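Contributing new complexes? Match this layout with magnesium ion.
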Amino acid sequence: MSNFRPSRPSGIKRCRTILATVLIGTLILTSVACKKGIQPTRETRFIMGTLVEIVAYPSSETTRAAVNRAFERMEEIEDQAYPDRSEFFLSLREGKPSALPEVLARVLDKALSVASESEGAFDPTLGRVVSLWGFDRNEPGIPADEDLAAALRTVGYRRLSVDSDGVVRPTPPGNPLWLELGGVAKGYAVDVAVAELTESGIQAGIVNAGGDLRSFGVRPDRGFWRIGIQDPDDPQGMLGVLEVDEGSVATSGDYERYFEKDGIRFHHILDPTSGLPVRNGIRSATVITRECGLADALATAAFVMGPEKGLALLERLEGVEGILVVDGEDLLTTSGVGGRIGFDRR
Ligand code: ADP
Ligand code: MG
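Output block (do not edit by hand):
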């Protein structure tokens, strides 16, 4: 791993000085005008509820065709990964075994491995609870206690098995299973888009799905990528800038989707034990690692686990770094944050 300091199992570091060297905004990232020289192809589409921008070098007809294919592959995942559109999800909700669409096999695998690493802080069976809050509807609201209690009885990432022939089975049989892959699918779709671009021979670029992003190759004008970290108190502003070689950055924040009632913010990152928006002081969790699907899920997991346990998880995992923004505290960072972060090319 080049330019990468191995993680230490040292627990928590409180670090004010890195502020200057760390943080940006994906906004800046993609809007910074290129210096003279090789220009990229740039295209934006609305996918998975967010603006996705692909920037790919060099600008050419071949690059434009590859960018188009990369978007199509993301749209394919969007078509399959969201419950209300898919027979796969609806059958599971009735407790019936259901054949896993091939395009979702690795998403579910990723979700289950992060569920197990985080001891269920990230839980892809939270669908019924997510649906009660309705953050994706125009008018989300606080669920009734009895509805929440009933929904929570369907939650538990061990309550399913995946056969070798790709059939997902609720456990025990007949148990309603409400899969929810919204905490990992977007990042995974970014990985798929990047794979499409690199397999098409594109030199360098970045796929940015509303702040969950992955860069690849050496940026022709300056060699590395600058990623902004949003300020939870002012999401238009930046806490600072992170410089990365190839790699992914994903953030879960309480400012992304929420509503307010009686002065209290209800946001979309939920505690699988209570079914309520997590309140542990964390405002945002940013994860830096090679794959965006993993970064996406780990950011949600770290947010749910809280400052101490979340940081310990990110520190323990090899090839993973993180930044937690916590109310009333300095930034918490894993030990590899500070210099440029790089990952092996494979
Ligand atoms: P975004 O999709 O806005 O980037 P995140 O990656 O932080 O946000 O994922 C939050 C989404 O994941 C929620 O909207 C919900 O669909 C789902 N979710 C919420 N809490 C959890 C959890 N504890 N485990 C797994 N998925 C969750
Ligand atoms: Mg995320």
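Reviewers usually confirm one structural detail per submission. For this one: The longest helix spans residues 61-81.
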